[in-house]
Amino acid sequence: xxxxxxxxxxxxxxxxxxxxxxxxxxxxxxxxxxxxxxxxxxxxxxxxxxxxxxxxxxxxxxxxxxxxxxxxxxxxxxxxxxxxxxxxxxxxxxxxxxxxxxxxxxxxxxxxxxxxxxxxxxxxxxxxxxxxxxxxxxxxxxxxxxxxxxxxxxxxxxxxxxxxxxxxxx
Length: 170
Known about the structure:
The chain has one helix and nine strands, in the order H-E-E-E-E-E-E-E-E-E. It is mostly beta strands. It has a single domain (2-169), classed as Porin, CATH 2.40.160.20. The protein has an eight-stranded antiparallel beta barrel with strand order 1-2-3-4-6-7-8-9. Strand 3 and strand 4 form a beta hairpin. Residues 18-26 have low confidence and may be disordered.
C-alpha cells in the first residue's frame, strides 16, 4: 500500500511539473519570500514548525529551502532541513499558484526511551526525497499564504506532512 501511494504521489508531482512547464506562471524572477510554517507529521503524530525561504530563479522555477523541528511525541522528535524545487503555474485568480514540489530532505530523528529512572536516547540521521504539492496565495504585494502537502521517502522514517505558512515577500 505504501509503495502504491509513493508511486501515485510521484506520478502526480511529475504530471503537475510537466503541466507547470507549459503554463505561464505568475511567479517573478528574483522574488524572495521568508516566513514561518507549521503543520503535522505522520511519523510520530506530532506538530512540526519551522522557517522557509523561497527564491524565484525564473518564472517557472523556484528554490525553497526550509528547516523545522518535529515536536516530541511517542518518544520521537526530529530536526529537518529541506531543499525543494517548486514549479509554479497560474491558477485562477492570478494571485494564486499551484505548484508541484520535488526535493531533498535531511532529518535527524531522536528516540527517547525511559530505562530504569533514566532516559536513553538514540539518534538516527537520514537523507530522503520529497514529493508533494503546494498552493499559495499572494494576499498583498508583500504577504504570501501557503499550504503544502509533502511526502518524504526515507529509510525507517518516511512521513507525510501537511503544513501551512505565512511569508513576507521582498
